[in-house]
Amino acid sequence: MANSNSHIEPLWIPPPKVFSLQTHDRQQIDHLNDLTFLSVAFKPLRKEPFYLDAKGVHGGAITQWTTDAPFGFVSSPKVALDKVTIRFVANGGIIRRNSFAEYLGTPGKAMFVAFEEMVTEEASAGFQAFAGTIDRSALMSGHVALEGSDEFAFPCFQPVVDISGAAMRAFRHNFYLVYERLNAGVDEHDLSFPLLQEMIIYQFLAAWPRSSPLDEGNVVLRPSWQVRRALDYIDANLQRKITLAEIAVAAGIGVRSLQASFRKELGKTPIQWITERRLAGVHKELIDPPHIEASIAEVARRWGFTHLGDFSRKYRERYGDTPLKSKRGVDYPQ
Questions:
Q1: Does position 2 have pLDDT exceeding 60, yes or no?
Q2: What angle do CA 15, 195, 239 make, to 5 degrees?
Q3: Which is nearest to 281 in space by CA: 315, 316, 230, 320?
Q4: Can you tell me the distance from the alpha carbon of 228 to that of 262, in angstroms, rounded to the nearest whole number?
Q5: HTH araC/xylS-type domain: from which residue to which, for each copy (predicted)?
Q6: Nearest-angstrom CA–CA distance, 302 and 199
Q7: Is residue 285's pLDDT more than 70?
Q8: Which of 115, 253, 306, 310 makes an SS bond possible with 187, Cβ 3.0 to 4.6 Å?
Q9: Mean pLDDT of 186-196
Q10: Where are the domains of the chain?
Q11: pLDDT tens digits along 211-242
Q12: Each residue of 128-146: pLDDT tens digit?
């Protein structure tokens, strides 16, 4: 796509896992725009000073960042990327100009726009936001997995939506939770984070308002034998990274039906079930004599729990006491 920016960069590389941008002077803008992992180029808003603080993370198909620009800015694309941008404005406003339309993002609203359609963005003074991009291919794959078939056309999503509803508030909360987890660092042995990343894509597809709303009555609940097949697959793969999409394939259903069936028949989501089964694995090892020499951290890590504080909280909620009490010989019913 043509644009007026004279600093066209033919090459884009993914950003670091964690990155920080601090540009507090107009003379530093060229250096900022030379960063090859930035897909946009910045310039000051008219004759205003230039001040930009951004903190970001990158993991898999998702890149996220926070922006603080007290004097605003104008940005335009350096490259064409097959991604979509999701933005939650906390303060100020931003105008997104595409080839045939423009959209205004303000506090209380969320924006969804295709990156390749962007011409310019203009952020006001006092602009603060939390945003992210998701690879379109990940959304497409998630849509097929969610519906259980590629026969359903990929939906059209509304470009600017209200975030006061429960579904959008929950999505924003979990989208930021992904940011926090990536910012803290995700261990390669963490078995829960891939599920969180997968879930956020499904949650977006289900929560974000559509231009042509999906009839929720079309979700088909599956009989118990398909849920049992899913449970068997989960138990056989608890100590490796698994996704809802592969569980659904093993059960012969789509992710949407898998989630609905778990809620109806088990009273919980697939992710809640997986977490509880992994906690049960930890609990069994902690009270099992052959594993008595292993530390709590080693056992938890073996079952995919790499954040010990979060693990201890979940364990206590499940078993009523701490992992240390269990290891010392106090057993609790599962």
A1: no
A2: 115
A3: 315
A4: 10
A5: 228-329
A6: 22
A7: yes
A8: 306
A9: 88
A10: 1-214, 274-327
A11: 854 444 445 555 578 898 999 999 999 999 99
A12: 999 999 999 999 999 999 9
DSSP secondary structure, 275-314, as one string: HHHHHHHHHHHHT-GGGTTS-HHHHHHHTT---HHHHHHH
The alpha-helical segments, DSSP class H, found in the chain are 29-33, 136-147, 166-184, 193-207, 224-236, 244-251, 255-266, 270-286, 296-302, 308-319, 323-327
Mean per-residue pLDDT, 157-168: 94
Cβ contact 236:271 at 8 Å: no
Reported residue count of the chain is 334
Measured between alpha carbons, how far apart are the two ends of the chain, in Å? 58
The pair of structure tokens assigned to 122 is: 């203009």
User: The sheet that has 160-162: what strands, in order across it?
Assistant: 18-23, 52-59, 62-69, 127-135, 83-91, 109-114, 160-162
Q: What torsion do the CA atoms of 271, 255, 176, 276 make, to the nearest 10 degrees?
A: 0
| Architecture (CATH level 2) of domain 1-214 | Sandwich (2.60)
- Binning the chain into helix, strand and coil, the percentages to the nearest 5 are 40, 20, 35
pLDDT tens figures, 48-102: 899 999 999 999 899 999 999 999 999 999 988 899 999 999 999 999 998 778 8
242 vs 220: CA distance, rounded Å? 24
**CATH code given to domain 274-327:** 1.10.10.60
Structure tokens at 132: 């992210």
